[in-house]
Automatic annotation (TrEMBL):
Identification of the protein by name: Nuclear receptor
Length: 406
């Protein structure tokens, strides 16, 4: 920009007395703030957001609102307004310095919201008792599902169940940095049980023998948890590939790029850090892939069906179950084809569909790596005080290793 700026650090008047549109909201302005053409209101909004370390959620949940073309009477999307501020290059060293200081202060002094009485008490039941609840849920049986020749919209049917599920798991308020393991533990327990409830509402799954339902749920729920959390992160934080914050539950988040922020208690345990680094790398791979794709809920449902039914490695399953799974994936793929052609007007989609298969594979790699770190804990006898997983995850792992499912 050729305009000469005044000595004022944050604002100056341009030489030409001609109003120009604010690069954020489009309003006319004669003043430069932060060395870019931005109006006073947007400059104040940016400064306030930095000062209080505020997190925003997009009004449309896609991070692409046109803040310069908003409807009269409708408030501007704060998430997209702040995103636009960053895109046009607003950077103020003092604001960034203050921001870092405020973030550090919040990490030390943050308090949990006080309206969570049901989540503040720790779980006292053992995982065996939790599994009994899941067992009772999975016992629900429907008539045999044998009508494979009929055209069934599996994505629509499972998508409705998935949508209802995610209404309960999405953030309930502004997320804060993790500092309460009881909330995290209760969320995981509910996720485990509610994922079983979701599956038994899907007729092809509910018709299976109990043993096979237990096996499939065991294989599915952790992969589903990993994928669903990454998807919720995109909906809540947007698609910036340098932002690795992920909701842990309805109220807390963690940043996988800065594990020392959350789990400083193991900072001096080098063997553990060596085992933890591959997991961090796979978390970054997953986050980058899902943000790059910006998958829709329709595509999310398709990936969930892949994770549930594409289980040819499970020798315990009957051939008829593998046949059912293959048919479901085949018909779901046809539905995906129609979705791309008719709704998205995408004539060439093979590469994108391949990315969905890759996403399912990366999710499985992440869960596998997570299991390896728990194995390392037992092998090297890391104490509970330094290990970053909650009690529910460790109890589940021990329970699975005992082959206590069936």
């Amino acid at each position: 920009m050729k305009n000469k700026l005044s000595t004022n650090k944050n604002a100056s008047v341009k030489n030409e007395n001609v109003a120009e549109p604010c690069l954020v909201c489009g309003s006319a302005t004669l003043t430069l703030h932060y060395q870019v053409i931005i109006c006073y209101a947007c400059a104040a909004f940016y400064r306030r957001s930095v000062k209080i370390n505020q997190s925003y959620v997009c009004q449309r949940n896609d991070g692409n609102c046109d803040v310069a073309n908003r409807k009269v009477g409708k408030p501007m999307c704060r998430y997209c307004r702040y995103k636009k501020c960053l895109e046009i290059g607003i950077r103020d060293s003092k604001a960034e310095k203050d921001d870092k200081e405020i973030i550090e202060e919040k990490v030390c002094k943050v308090e949990m919201p006080k309206n969570l009485p049901e989540h503040e008490t720790p779980i006292t039941e053992s995982f065996e008792e939790v599994f009994k609840k899941a067992f009772i849920i999975l016992e629900e049986q429907s008539s045999p599902f044998s009508n494979l020749s009929a055209k069934t919209d599996y994505i629509e049917a499972f998508g409705k169940l998935l949508s209802d599920f995610m209404v309960e798991t999405k953030p309930k308020q502004t997320l804060i940095l993790i500092n309460n393991d009881n909330i995290r533990l209760n969320f995981l327990k509910d996720f485990y049980l509610n994922s079983a409830k979701m599956l038994v509402k899907f007729p092809p799954f509910a018709s299976l023998p109990l043993k096979e339902k237990i096996i499939l749920h065991q294989e599915f729920w952790q992969n589903f948890h990993c994928l669903e959390r990454a998807y919720q992160a995109c909906k809540y934080y947007g698609y910036d590939q340098n932002d690795y914050r992920t909701p842990l539950d309805n109220y807390q988040y963690y940043d996988s790029s800065k594990p020392e922020k959350h789990f400083s208690r193991f900072a001096n345990h080098k063997p553990f850090i060596l085992f933890f680094q591959p997991l961090i790398a796979k978390a970054a791979l997953l986050q980058n892939l899902i943000k790059k794709l910006k998958i829709t809920e329709f595509e999310l449902t398709y990936v969930c069906l892949l994770l549930l039914w594409n289980r040819y490695e499970l020798s315990e399953m009957h051939d008829s179950t593998h046949e059912l799974g293959a048919k479901i994936i085949e018909q779901a793929s046809e539905d995906l084809h129609n979705y791309y052609i008719e709704e998205l007007r995408m004539q060439s989609y093979a590469a994108r569909q391949a990315q969905l298969f890759k996403l399912a594979h990366v999710v499985e790699l992440f869960v596998c790596e997570k299991t390896k770190t728990i194995t390392a804990k037992n092998l090297f006898e890391f104490s509970k005080e330094i290990f970053p997983y909650c009690t529910f995850e460790l109890s589940y792992y021990d329970f699975v290793n005992k082959k206590a499912f069936y």
